[in-house]
Amino acid sequence: MARQKKGQAEFTRWMGPLLDCLRALGGSAKPQEVSRWIARELRLPPEITDAIIKSGANRFHNQVQWARQYLVWQGLLDDSRRGIWTLSPLGWKTHLDEDASRIIFLDRVKVQQTERKQHASVEPRVEPELTDTEPPEESQDLGLLDVLKSLPPYGFELICGRLLREHGFEEVEVTQRSRDGGIDGYGLLRLSPFVSLRVAFQAKRYKDVVARSAVGEFRNALLGRAEKGVFITTGRFTADAEAEATRDGVVPIELIDGERLAELFQDKLIGLKPKTVYEIDHAFFEDFRRES
C-alpha cells in the first residue's frame, strides 16, 4: 500500500479496511481488535504499527480512531455505545476505496469551513494527521491515563488493587514496597461456589510499549505463588508480549493495556463523575442545506 503524500489526511487509508473489519467480525468490535485486524490483514510493517505520537499513544491506532470518527460523522458507524465500534445499516453495504475515503474527508472539511464562516469566533480545526491529536471519544481516556501515569508507583499499585476489588476480586492485598519480587499484589477470584483462583498482579506505569521480556519476568515471579497473573499497564503490549502471555504449558497471564484500563475505570466510575455531552449530528442538517 503506497504511503500518502505529506499534508494529506493519512487516516483516510484506514476507512475502507475499518468497514471491512467490522463486517468480517459480525458488525461490531472493540477498538484494539479493529486495529489488530487491519494490521494483520494488510500485513503492515512495524514502522507503521509501532510508531508513537507525542502523547505516548500508538500512532497507527490513533489514525484508525480518526478514521472511525469520520465514518461516524458520515453515518456509516453507530456511536451509541461507547467502547464498541458498530456498523450502521448504511455501513454494512458501503465499501470504500482510498479515493472514496478521501472524498468523505474533503466533504467534511467543506462542512467545517462553512461552519467557521458562519461562526467566525470558532477556532479553526487542524487536520489530525498534522498534529497527532486525539479523536473526541478518545480524549477523555487519554486524560484519565495521564492522571494514572502521574501517580507514584505505590499509589498506582493501590488504585489497581481497588480496581480489582471493584470488579469482583476478594482478599485483595498490595505487597509492601520493594518487597514484591516482581509481584505487586494478590487477589482471590471465585469462579463458582466450589472453584477459586489465586491471582497475582503487576501494575506498571508505562508511557510506551511493554516488551515480551517484561511479561516473561512476571511469569517467572508467579511460579509457585499464583495460578494466574494479571499485568496492568498504562501503555500497550507488543505482539510478542501478547504471544508470551498466552503461551501453552505455562501460567496464563491476562494483559490489561491503557485502553482497556480506562474502560475498566469507566465501568465502575472509579475516580470519575458522569456527565452528559451533546455532539452535533451534522448528517441530520445536510437535508436542510439544500436550496429550495
| CATH fold-level label of the largest domain | Arc Repressor Mutant, subunit A
> How would the global form be characterised?
elongated
What's the number of helices? 13
Write out the strand line-up for the largest beta sheet, numbering strands in chain order. 4-5-6-8-10
Helix and strand arrangement:
Elements: H1 15-24, E1 28-29, H2 31-41, H3 46-49, H4 59-73, E2 77-78, E3 85-87, H5 89-92, H6 98-118, H7 128-131, H8 136-150, H9 153-166, E4 170-174, E5 185-190, E6 196-204, E7 209-210, H10 212-222, E8 228-233, E9 236-237, H11 239-245, E10 253-256, H12 258-268, H13 282-286
Characteristics of this structure?
292 residues, Arc Repressor Mutant, subunit A, Trna Endonuclease, Chain: A, domain 1, 3-stranded antiparallel sheet, 10 strands, 14% strand
Task: Describe this entry's structure for a reader.
By secondary structure, the chain is α/β, with parallel strands linked by helices. The chain folds into two domains: 125 residues, Arc Repressor Mutant, subunit A; 122 residues, 3-Layer(aba) Sandwich (Trna Endonuclease, Chain: A, domain 1), CATH 3.40.1350.10. It is 45% helix and 14% strand. The strands form three sheets. It has a five-stranded mixed β-sheet with strand order 4-5-6-8-10, with helices on both faces. It has a three-stranded antiparallel β-sheet with strand order 1-3-2. A two-stranded parallel sheet has the order 7-9. A hairpin with a 5-residue loop joins β5 and β6. α8 crosses α12. The longest helix has 21 residues.
